[in-house]
Amino acid sequence: MDSHAYRHRHLLGIEGLTPDDIGYVLDLADGYVDINREAEKKKSLLRGRTLINCFFENSTRTRTSFEVAGKRLGADVINMAVAVSSMRKGETLIDTAMTLNAMHPDVLVVRHPESGAVQLLAEKVDCAVINAGDGSHEHPTQALLDALTIRRRKGKLGGLTVAICGDVLHSRVARSNIALLNAMGARVRVVAPRTLLPAAVEHLGVEVFHDMAEGLRDVDIVMMLRLQQERMHGSFVPSTREYFHFFGLDYDKLKAAKPDALIMHPGPMNRGVEIGSEVADDIDRSLIRQQVEMGVAVRMACLEIMAGNFGNGPPIQ
């Protein structure tokens, strides 16, 4: 595949990406996994380029991952915790865009609590924008790192059956993963109580289950989701104890899956709520630590592509 195989100006979501686009990012990221395991990790590929991490919503894990990725590529990395400054002063998203634009960054990584806000920002700045999560809409780099984690362990994505379990309603991770896995030829199931599923979720191309034993039957990958209580207004689950009893992952529920089924979680985990500690820490079956490692490699690939690609084509809608 040629070096311009990925022709989008921004990475705003998985929807709109072709299997070739996705494969290109994963192949590039694969090479960075090995580099990140070497003693000398630093490259000068983005020397002289400026990356701004603009987080309107806190996320230590994702922000740190992008920061490490940028620095390993030699970029100048600036972290802006907008949530604690501008927003409280009444500054609008457009004002923030104008301020950022005046700094002439090359890549802007944005997380925002409102769905669609990152796209709006992308329309107002003269640089590449990567969506680090917008509301309950999309989180594309999480889906890409999950895909890389699965592909490295299983050797493929096509033909696998993946169960995404838990708070699908509030999860941008679930939406991005459903789009990517479907594009790459996997079979996707969602397993959740009715209160935690979006309306007409089956239209996303998934099989729907409300029982863990049925939903996990013969699956290759069990992907647990965080119960996002900060986004819940009203009673979605009776109690966390009852939620774990019916929908939390433990060895008893895992018996329904294939014997070599692997366990994933985007983090941060609520142990004893979505997942039991023994399962989460299972050295043979849990991929949770590998997901964090793959996150840096995938974000390095995305930064390399975006820094070189701005102006190369239409943005992803």
The helix-and-strand class reads alpha/beta
* Average predicted confidence as pLDDT: 91
Distance between the termini: 23 Å
Q: Given the C-alpha coordinates, what overall shape results?
A: globular
N to C succession of SSEs: HEHEHEHEHEHEEHEHHEHH
Provide the low-confidence segments as ranges.
Answer: 311-317
**Count of β-strands:** 9
In order across it, which strands form the biggest sheet?
7-6-5-8-9
Number of helices: 11
Please indicate the percent range of residues in DSSP E strands (runs of 2 or more).
5-15%
Q: How big is the Rg?
A: 19 Å
What profile does the largest beta sheet have?
5 strands, parallel
Helix content: 25-40%
Structure description:
- With 317 residues, the protein is of the alpha/beta class.
- Helices cover 37% and strands 14% of the residues.
- Mean pLDDT is 91; it is low at 311-317.
- Helix 5 packs across helix 11 (288-309).
- The chain contains 11 helices and 9 strands.
- The strands form 2 sheets. The protein has a 5-stranded parallel sheet. The chain has a 4-stranded parallel sheet with strand order 2-1-3-4.
- Strand 1 (50-55), helix 2 and strand 2 (76-80) form a beta-alpha-beta unit.
In short:
This protein has 317 residues and is α/β, with parallel strands linked by helices.
